[in-house]
Known about the structure:
It comes from Methylobacterium thuringiense. InterPro entries: Ptyr_pPase_sf (IPR036196), UCP029416_PTP (IPR016919). This is Protein-tyrosine-phosphatase. This protein is of the alpha/beta class and 106 residues long. It is built from 4 helices and 4 strands, in the order βαβαβαβα. It has helices spanning 13-21, 44-49, 58-67, 91-101, and strands spanning 2-7, 28-33, 52-55, 76-79. The protein has a 4-stranded parallel sheet. It is globular.
Amino acid sequence: MRLLFVCGRARLRSPTAEQIFCRYDGLETASAGVSADADEPVTAEHLAWADIVFVMERGHRRKLQRRFRSALKHARLICLDIPDDCAFMDPALVRLLETKVRPPLR
Length: 106
């Protein structure tokens, strides 16, 4: 299963999620951002690749839906509702991601 994690600039939350879940057997992960200055801007190719697209905030979901409506037709899109107030690999962020991402993987 291929998971794409999307946040604003893809510098903290999404790369943390990518690092955590790439260790799980049977999962491939990537991260990208919806902001113009993202380190790795999300593309239609990212969305076509992913089986599940996890966004960190509702605003990210809205941006994806506006920019990539046709590319999202076959993707499962899940909002995690995780605010941007954690550092990369912050233990609280790791726990929150594991709690929210694992159930849809079953």
